[in-house]
TrEMBL record:
Membrane topology: Multi-pass membrane protein
Annotated signal peptide: none
GO molecular function annotations of the record: undecaprenyl-diphosphatase activity
Transmembrane regions: 48-66, 87-106, 112-133, 154-171, 191-211, 223-245, 257-274
Lineage: Bacteria, Bacillati, Bacillota, Clostridia, Peptostreptococcales
Gene: uppP
Protein name, per record: Undecaprenyl-diphosphatase
Keywords: Antibiotic resistance, Cell membrane, Cell shape, Cell wall biogenesis/degradation, Hydrolase, Membrane, Peptidoglycan synthesis, Transmembrane, Transmembrane helix
Other information: Bacitracin is thought to be involved in the inhibition of peptidoglycan synthesis by sequestering undecaprenyl diphosphate, thereby reducing the pool of lipid carrier available.
Amino acid sequence: MEFIEIMKAIILGIIEGITEWLPVSSTGHMILVDEFLQLNMSPAFKEMFFVVIQLGAIMAVVVLYWKKIFPFSFKKKPFVQKSIIVMWIKVIVACLPAAVIGLLFDDKVNELFYNFQTVAIMLILFGIFFIVVENYNKGKSPIANDMDQLTFKMAIIIGLFQVIAAVFPGTSRSGATILGALLIGVSREVAAEFTFFLAIPVMFGASLLKLVKFGFVFTGFEVLILSVGSIVAFIVSILAIKFLMGYIKKHDFKVFGWYRIILGVILLGYYFFLR
């Protein structure tokens, strides 16, 4: 029985590692998979598990982008990299709206919107938005082609899009922020990277909140399950991030839009006809 639960944690880690970074909604996939592959753990542990394994995914960003996110250099002058400090200020500014919503309304949001209908609808809506925005931007040159060109105003707008994802599961945090960035003229590469960096404080904060609610009291087996899921999510996230950054250098995001629409329709069909 324990071996089966470990295998479930591995599968969930793989799904988290892929869907956290591709703009397809990790929440939507987790809800769908949980219908067929439920961890034999307490509801409180599962709620915490689905959030905290994202820390493994976040560590992939830290490892891959260390030189772009760590502002102190022991080999170069100046010692403090001003551009990286400014980038982190932009990240903090963009995170504030979602952080406030999360702290004040986390339980209420889960109660009202954490369901099949909301996830499916938001998958479909933002899938359509991706296709529409990419068609609208076709032939246009981005106005922000590197992180230094991304202004504080742009960061605030991207942060407001992140609020949509914080309230409505299925939107996809990465999907909402990338879409917001594309709408205001940020290049695909910069939009994706800024989304990665935004995830660091957001996911650390969300994970800490869930751990506090859970109580930091674990059985040995719960620690094992959480560790396995997080480690797998870390490994798979490295591959997923590298894939996404390579893909968007030559392609747009429309394929993810179509995928979202198809998945949303499947979720609605399952909910109304099979569940």
